[in-house]
Description:
The protein is of the alpha+beta class.
Amino acid sequence: MALVTDLYRYPVKGLSAEPQGRVTLAVGEGVPLDRAFAIAHGTTRFDPDAPQPLPKTHFLMLAVNERMAALKSAYDDTTGVLTINRDGRAVVRAKPDQPGGRQVIEQFFAAYMKDECRGAPRLVHAPGHTFADCKAKRLSLIGLPSICDLERVVRQPVDPVRFRANVYFDGTEPWAEFGWIGREIIMGTARLRVVARIDRCPATDVNPGSARRDMNIPRALQAGFGHIDMGVYAEVVQSGDVAVGDRLDAG
């Protein structure tokens, strides 16, 4: 029997994962507040009044900017305050949806990232918009047995958080999720349709604990399995709640 082991959201694209005990999913939406904010390069053109999906190269991201992994962030839903910690110390506390708060956050990233930014960085956000890598609003799911099989190939532990998925689950055969494409699954009281495999980029090379690029995950996947995919995307087709420990039924 497959069970949900972990739920995560990533309020700011490229910053740290936030574990969730329970999430409420709505039809056609992803995990609430997932990738709701992003740090855009100064050269990026983004209109919050008419938001359009943009390639991830328009933003600070782990695939290029591994220093971001050294920051631990937390967004407080009640107060709207984003806290960013570095080396265990809070370096930013600000409201990203307020002009003054955005300025504080932008000034921090300008100083922290330095010449890695193309122009003055800007914190961007638009209600209802997501800065996920895929255009449609989806959840990403990964079976822990698949990651264990990758560990067999690389002969060392692989932190699942490298893959920045929303849902991790256990109790299946390795790579079982690839066989769910085009099918519906049930998690908690929500129903989802699995739509695609997820191909992986150099962002997964970054160790989320050390902020160092210490593995080549795409190359390991290609060498071991003949592809660079890990996990699947799914769309919510029936609203409901999902909690850690809930059953995942793939039929």
